[in-house]
């Protein structure tokens, strides 16, 4: 009898045996052996092995090994059939989900696009069957697999999980996913970190205060907060600071999504002020990006310790003074109106630093008003007066240049720059009025010039 016909006969015997199917073990063993046969036998074997898998639990390992042989066959058509049938092993035996998911993750190495699609489809089937078990199997390869497997496993998670419904991504599954991501992030590339954080940001837990705090804690660990910048690069490593700074910026951008009056930015603000600001040239373009991040975090640094708050205030204040020149000799009175000297100002940098100072000093007004701060305040007011003169003059010029412009005209690159500059200078002007108040006031709220108008960053 033809071997294919014989396989069909054995299938019929097993299918019609009902409750007594276990008495026909020899027929099932013959089906397992047929994975070594012709292509036609292999394709049938793939379907039949999975069909009767649950009836022979003591042959489970042998059956799975036989199926895996087919998954590694030289014929891509046979591989795809075997891969497609793999999830069937788990329908009534969910304890095998992690192992099958692990195998499927390993198979992501394939260079055949159609085969890759079948693998991904089988993984999706497993996720819907047992999400936690599947994630366990996939993450085992993210942690220990080859680089290409790791890359494709992470890509699978980030592209397929977001479309899963609440019935799949339950609270327990989301918590497990966060736990596994925490393990992986002990050693990730910048792109992997960003991808996994984007995945986590789409979870329901990311909409809760405890979930947001957990994500901020995860980012904080990744950012090496509290450590000197570039410490891991070793002494004398000139590249360590730029690399560490780029990593920190990337981390802060992820954490910014979650800061609020209920999720504090204090650890990040303290780190940025104490470990980064002292080594930055105030007027540098690179520094501007850092200062913008500081300004966006400053309103939410609610639980800075008294010591850290004082330190951060001093560092931000000193950096701000670098960009706020004293008036030239002979103009050191608050009533001077001489317009001969106009200071050259880095207004975008000033906006960031002044706003950060305004937000931090709100929590410790004595920084400017204490008896021992009298000279500091006097010097600061001289600088504020001189800065205000330059800013107000610039505001007048910008308003005049933009006056009467139609909406279409405002969309030119030149006018967009002028509109942005007007927002920046107007913000600085508001802050100056607050700080020039006696005593300094911290009541005004502004929208930072680079933020959408509808979003107010103040808590």
From TrEMBL:
Question: What is one term from the GO cellular component aspect held by the record?
Answer: nucleus
SUPFAM superfamilies, alphabetized: ARM repeat
- An example Gene Ontology molecular-function term: RNA binding
Q: Which UniProt keywords apply?
A: Apoptosis
InterPro entries this protein is in? API5, ARM-type_fold
Q: Name the Gene Ontology biological process terms.
A: apoptotic process; negative regulation of apoptotic process
By sequence similarity, the record places it as follows: Belongs to the API5 family.
This chain's protein is named: Apoptosis inhibitor 5/fibroblast growth factor 2-interacting factor 2
Q: What is the protein's species of origin?
A: Amblyomma americanum
